[in-house]
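ligand=zinc ion
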Amino acid sequence: MSKLNRRQLIQAAALTPWAWQLGESGLQGSEFAAGLRIATFRFDVTPPIGHSCCGGWIKPVEVVDDTLEALGFVILGLEKPVVVCSVDWTGLLNTAHIQWRETLANAVGTSADQVAVQCVHQHNAPFACLDAQKIVSKHPDLPAIVDTDFFQQCLKRAETAARESLNQAVPLTHVGWGQAEVDKVGANRRVARNEEGRITSMRGSSCRDATLRALPEGTIDPWLKTVAFYSGDRKVACSHYYATHPMSYYADGRVTSDFVGLARKRLQAEQPGCCHLYFTGCAGNVAAGKYNDGTPESRKQLTDRLFRAMQSSDEQLSKTPIRNLHWRTQEMIPEPRGLFDAEALELQIADPKQTTVNRNRPAYTVAWLNRVRQRTPIILSSLCINDLALLHLPAECFIEYQLAAQQIASELTVATAAYGDGGPWYIPTAEEYECGGYEVSVAFCEPSIDRELRRAMKFLLSKP
Ligand SMILES: [Zn+2]
């Protein structure tokens, strides 16, 4: 295994190194922020009728209940601009994730390592891996994973939206943050265990089993956090963070941004002058099953609960002048799971007697194995502003990583977005591997990823 470490500390372009040191030692916010600007963008990423949902093993798109969006902000006035983008898709993996970041980077004149792209993870949505698509396209009896023409259209929209946003850039002067406890939404889905601690059944996104629903919430992060960006008195953008799988029900061919997207859209309608973004935290083992029976009524309740938390967090924003801001990245090539054999998986994908899920899903595994063989790293990043850290992690991390991030950075408030590059699929903690369960069965990396990830977070969250 090899890992490349890289530290990138970006200073405001207007500042000389001398002024940067002053900034660290108490330069007035307004002076520091003089060169900073912010722009926001949005574009539609709703898949066309007939497009595969979640990799092609659930019902494809039949109808659009509400649209899927990509939303982002660009921070200018640094040596190189920084872009952070949230996408209402199940995932963006490997080459698809790299292309998305490269496109946004080219659009605003920066490099791809200055761009974080995080998915919200709704399931009636594309689960885009161009490499897995290439593999399944060799078998005409398999449904596509992603329509590559549609994907290219989305990149064109990304390019246009991000480039044109620069014309609307305004001075970025202040940052704010707030938080609110979310009531009865997320619960751990790995709570049913035998005496040895092994998982016996999963409490999924929706659950009608009274025994499973009666089990405790388990380990979660109950806080929804909000980070706001201001231009003087004007609130320009708000990023909201909460860790749960975002589905109330799915696999019915009805595209929706689901309860997290519906809550965000409601707040957006109330505050048209501010761009509201939503990020899913480390929700690999967190879902709504304890409080959700999968009915439309439950979706409404979950939407209301999340909306109330967003609203309350938004009302509690405390605002300070920006004194310092930096962006850091860390590259990682985690060790792939030794039990996966690419040749055996290729045979399984080719086997018409297997179910669609047992053919399309291994295409993602093979894509990951190929990627690691090519030594193409995953990029993690953080944007630290004053005492806030926006942390961007890959794939489906377990909630313990988000809780660890906040502990590591005890002097900072950490807002964590997971579901960046989705290549590794689930990222359990090391000790959970032997407990089994669905997540572990589709974790594409060895338990050593736990150590790698914590080491990366330590670096990303250290004080400059
Ligand atoms: Zn998931």
